């Protein structure tokens, strides 16, 4: 799976087509959004179109970690094999795009970790609506899976901030509201903890 996700910016037709992003970006994003995040060129090209979904009561938008630090984008992909196939437990690495093999993986379609300026997990959800869902049970399932995939997940997740990038086509049902995810290392937390740690952003694919 990792080989299929490898990106060569000099020879890959995807990135040559991205130079015409005003015309072709929606179609390219439709199929290649996830592994396109491996490209600094791509990340810098989409960051201006990324808008935060602020929580209730806060009107000032904040930038996501990639907007202020595009060089922190992931550099290589790692596929997460379904747990029923007994994959090896991994050490968490920064700069790696983790792409679950399962189509039913909860919460996000891929994710990566950033070490600075703030330790952050960035999830990417390619969606036509809110198809993954952000219910507490979904987030708990997500955390349980990460605990199974990674060595020392409980320790690593302490103090970790979370951002989720929702990628939508402009014709899909837009996500405008704050997504109340209970995204923390432990399932039990209060609303203030959720608000402090979770920062959703929305990117619209325009035709």
From TrEMBL:
Q: Which InterPro entries match?
A: Trypano_RHS
NCBIfam families in the cross-refs: Trypano_RHS
Name this protein carries in UniProt: Retrotransposon hot spot (RHS) protein
């Amino acid at each position: 799976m990792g080989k299929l996700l490898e990106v060569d910016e000099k020879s890959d037709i995807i990135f040559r087509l991205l130079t015409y992003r005003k015309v072709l970006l929606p179609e390219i994003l439709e199929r290649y959004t996830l592994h396109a995040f491996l490209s600094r060129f791509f990340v810098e090209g989409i960051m201006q179109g990324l808008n935060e979904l602020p929580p209730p009561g806060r009107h000032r938008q904040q930038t996501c970690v990639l907007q202020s630090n595009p060089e922190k984008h992931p550099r290589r992909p790692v596929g997460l094999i379904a747990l029923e196939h007994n994959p090896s437990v991994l050490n968490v690495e920064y700069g790696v795009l983790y792409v679950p093999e399962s189509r039913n993986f909860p919460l996000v379609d891929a994710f990566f970790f950033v070490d600075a300026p703030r330790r952050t997990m960035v999830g990417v959800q390619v969606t036509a609506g809110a198809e993954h869902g952000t219910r507490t049970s979904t987030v708990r399932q997500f955390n349980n899976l990460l605990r199974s995939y990674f060595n020392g997940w409980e320790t690593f997740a302490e103090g970790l901030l979370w951002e989720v990038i929702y990628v939508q086509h402009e014709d899909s049902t837009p996500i405008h509201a704050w997504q109340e995810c209970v995204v923390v290392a432990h399932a039990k937390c209060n609303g203030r903890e959720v608000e402090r740690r979770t920062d959703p952003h929305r990117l619209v694919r325009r035709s």
